[in-house]
Each structure stands twice: as structure tokens, then as C-alpha cells.
Amino acid sequence: MFVLIVLLSMFVLPIGSALVELFVFKSPIGILALLGKWAVFWAVGVRLFTAGLRQAINPEFTAREILGISGKEPLQVIQELGFANISMGLLGLLTLLQGNWTIPAAISGGLFYGLAGIRHIFKAGRNPLENVAMLSDLVMALFLAGFFIQYLVR
User: Fold this and answer.
1) What is the mean pLDDT of residues 111-136?
2) Contact call for residues 100 and 131 (beta carbons, < 8 A)
3) What is the pLDDT of residues 12-65, one digit of tens each?
4) What radius of gyration do the chain's Cα atoms show?
5) Alpha carbon distance 37, 23 (integer Å)
6) 52-88 in b/e burial notation, b at 16+ Cβ within 10 A?
7) Whole-angstrom Cα distance, residue 13 to residue 51?
8) HEC profile of the chain
9) In whole angstroms, what is the distance from residue 151 CA to residue 46 CA?
10) What is the pLDDT of residues 93-105, one digit of tens each?
11) Of residues 54, 65, 75, the one with CA closest to residue 128
């Protein structure tokens, strides 16, 4: 289920939403801007918000299944990570109502994904779910960085 959620929220739904807006609704916005808009909504908004809820409500899942950690000690930190993810995710969700929040959400989400992905790289003994998290984090960080750079040079 984790892999499906990651694939949908970080790749399938952003690309699909951008294509629908471009071809069905005939948006005058360029494809890169549309991909950025929808990546921020789905990957930063939906993905981080839902991950944050899961971490806040059930920190054991993240500890055990993603990070391979057992015991009660890390659960408070994982819950607090959940609160941060809920906060970033809410910013990403609200970009559909406040379009001028897209770049700040892309910056905060992209920085989070980049740092988390880099951290995963250096962890020995990653499990398959952590590899999925690492790869998707790094790909999304690179995309959001490109989106931000494109915004700066336009």
C-alpha cells in the first residue's frame, strides 16, 4: 500500500492532473508550471499531509516498517515529524486556493524531500520501503528544485 500511495501522489496524480488541466481545460500555463503546481499539491500537499497524519496517529508504522526501528524511544520524535509533515502538507494543499503560496510550498517541500532523501542514502541496511522513500524523495526534490529555478529565471 505504501508504494502505491507514493507512486500515485508523487508521480501519477501530478502528471495526470497537469495533463487534464492542459488538454481538457485548455490551460494557457506551460507544462512545466502545471507539473510544478500539481506536484506541489499532490506530493507536498496530499503526500506529506497524509504521511503526517499517519506518523502522528500511528508512529509505530513509520518506526517499524519504514525506518526498521523498534521500541518506544523514537515514537515521540516520529509524532513530531508527523506534525511538521501535517504543517507542510497543509501549505501544499492550500496552494489550490492561494496560488501565490505554490513557490513557498515547493521550497519547503523540496528542501524536506532533498534532506530526507540524502539522509536515507547514508543509512546502512535500508529496507525496500526505505529505498522507495529514498528514491521518491530524491526525484521529487530534484523536480521541485528545477521548478523553483524555472520560476526564478522566467
Assistant:
1) 95
2) no
3) 999 999 999 999 999 999 999 999 999 999 999 999 999 999 999 999 999 998
4) 16
5) 16
6) bebbbeebbebbeebbeeeeeebbeebbebbeebbeb
7) 16
8) CHHHHHHHHHHHHHHHHHHHHHHHCCCCCCHHHHHHHHHHHHHHHHHHHHHHHHHHHCHHHHHHHHCCCCCCCCHHHHHHHHHHHHHHHHHHHHCCCCHHHHHHHHHHHHHHHHHHHHHHHCCCCCCHHHHHHHHHHHHHHHHHHHHHHHHHHC
9) 22
10) 999 999 999 999 9
11) 65
73: which 3 cell numbers?
Answer: 524511544
The CA–CA distances, whole Å, from 93 to 25, 41, 73, 130 equal: 21, 5, 31, 25
> What angle in degrees, to the nearest 10, is found between the helix axes of 128-153 and 102-121?
140
Q: What's the grid cell of residue 57?
A: 496517529
How many residues comprise the chain? 154
Query: Is the model's pLDDT at 154 over the cut of 90?
Result: no
